[in-house]
Amino acid sequence: MLRLTTYLQGLLSEQPDRFVPARKPSGPVVIWNLIRRCNLTCQHCYASAANKDFAGELDTAEVFRVMDDLYDSGVRVLILSGGEPLMRSDIFEIAARAKAKGMYTGLSSNGTLIDEHNVGHIASVGFDYIGVSLDGIGATHDAFRGLPGSFEQSMRGIRLCHAHGMKVGVRFTMTEENAHDLPALLKLVEDEDIDKFYFSHLNYAGRGNANRETDALHQRTRWAMDMLIDACAQSIRNDRPREFVTGNNDADGVYLLQWAQRNFPDREEQVKQLEQKLYSWGGNSSGVNVANIDNRGYVHPDTMWWKIRLGNVKERSFGEIWQDTSHPLMAGLKQSPRPVTGRCANCQYLTLCNGNTRVRAWELTGDYWTADPACYLSDAELGITPGSYSEEEHRLARRLRSIPIQPVSLDDQEVAPCAHA
User: Start and end of every Radical SAM core domain (predicted)?
Assistant: First the structure.
């Protein structure tokens, strides 16, 4: 996750900040998919959630036991997700227990089930953050979510959370089919005084993989990043800084640095500090500072790796699973630098973005370590020598949306467990 606001505040300040290297967290941020059931069928859902019950999900007692294990393993940030987490009858018990343990506790919801009857309960739990997904305005959002009227229901939830004093944000996943609504969404965030805007690039997992032919073109991504950076900078200049973040494409950090170098040649010290901060951030942290537990207790390197099972918290402690590098993916993710090949290996910014999102490369090629085709910067921008990587990588980076794929159910497909899973 790239925190645009944090970086731009330092860049736009009159005096350079004192650079302080990022502290190593005690444990990873854990996104926990407590339930796979959902009342919507979103086109990009990595969990391929559906409005039905799924067998084998953890009960309340198991969740509490695992939560204790997470805390003992150093986890201090917990994001409760789904499916739709509000469809679990014990969601408030789970969240209250996490808060009682002193954990930062977020709720990742589609917002449609937040109403006048439960918003008081949501507020009383004390969630640190409520994230609601919006994939466009009105009919655009409804089409993505598969439910007419879902946009207005989600907006009702956002407004109710805001009215009850909760920090609430919007998450937008951009594709070629909804990019046209980005300007209107940014205006909505400003008009509604929403605390945070999370811009997510499409990742190739679940239905997001089945619909990857809709992924944004590289030029569209650059257009969107320019718009986001401008909106973020304007909010800072207006003394009303809003939290803008991007996720699922760590090339954003390189793009931001080069944007700053082009636009602020007179702020050499601030640009130099931005560069230090971005290298300290270090790009993609899947398998290191970000972890996922799915609805059945399987641990994954992040939410996009449900096809790779590292172990199950019903059978082994989270800490033991997380430190186990017997699976080649985890061994490589924890390696520094990561063992990327081809275009990524030849990039002068490798230690800034850390090889970007490995799951896209894997879904397209079967290789964890080949270049991420969603990197939208040119060879010249990245200091890559022409001809230093294969023609196949060159083709994938430009024709990734034309490769036909067949949607596969997560319940039926092959998974790649490690030796202990």
Answer: 24-239
